[in-house]
Amino acid sequence: xxxxxxxxxxxxxxxxxxxxxxxxxxxxxxxxxxxxxxxxxxxxxxxxxxxxxxxxxxxxxxxxxxxxxxxxxxxxxxxxxxxxxxxxxxxxxxxxxxxxxxxxxxxxxxxxxxxxxxxxxxxxxxxxxxxxxxxxxxxxxxxxxxxxxxxxxxxxxxxxxxxxxxxxxxxxxxxxxxxxxxxxxxxxxxxxxxxxxxxxxxxxxxxxxxxxxxxxxxxxxxxxxxxxxxxxxxxxxxxxxxxxxxxxxxxxxxxxxxxxxxxxxxxxxxxxxxxxxxxxxxxxxxxxxxxxxxxxxxxxxxxxxxxxxxxxxxxxxxxxxxx
Length: 323
Prior knowledge:
Blueprint: E1 2-4, H1 11-16, E2 25-29, H2 36-43, E3 49-53, H3 59-73, E4 78-81, H4 93-101, E5 107-111, H5 116-119, H6 124-141, E6 154-157, H7 158-163, H8 175-185, E7 190-194, H9 208-233, H10 238-267, H11 273-299, H12 307-322
Parallel strand pairs: 1-2, 2-3, 5-7
Antiparallel strand pairs: 4-6, 5-6
């Protein structure tokens, strides 16, 4: 499945490289001003290619959702998403599908950071930005085992795609990150697949100064939702106590320490060791509790594949209906 927007110069080359292991190719024309859909229909004679047209530009997320729905309707098993700009090697499709087909994952995504020699070709600002985004995504999604969260080379089992709340997933730049959060709400297993880092001379449409606050807000929102869903709504554990208690102790210690420091500064006196310890101890204990929560959260990364149980449930339903 290939979202298509201003990629008329490269998409035919991408289509030519897709192997015979793929049974259907969906090109999603996301209201492309260059007429990507018509360009493919006029120049490509591959019978596997189907062009889907969005009446309005919905962004990469909207295009992917349209492709997912078409693949699900046709009964596809695994849906792979690549870009049409030529930066994602179609020969890697089998590597992305293999963990899903073998029952090791529900969703796979690319990771360009496995080969350190090739990572050197990546611009420094991208390296720094990706590291920051990866850490924020680990917190908000709960997938501590993945990196390179904005990587758009992905594969998903159709049974998992079928239960996703398409109407709630972010449609534009936050799409890949929001997908991870939504997958975690179902406890789907996500794995990284190594892939090389490729950069052409394209100019990114992503303006950091315009989306940074939106990203921070959405990460904070998803983190809050995930913690509520996993630690209070669906289950209660020791981690449900560690996080709020740790935060309260840290805030209490910081407030007490700040008040004592201001009072000592106004009166030009030295704060007593007892007061210092009274402020420092809650902070130290709070940090320990928050770290304990993070350790529990990391250990809770989903490991049980979901699509096998969903498939079994679907078969049982069909058998009941046949009877």
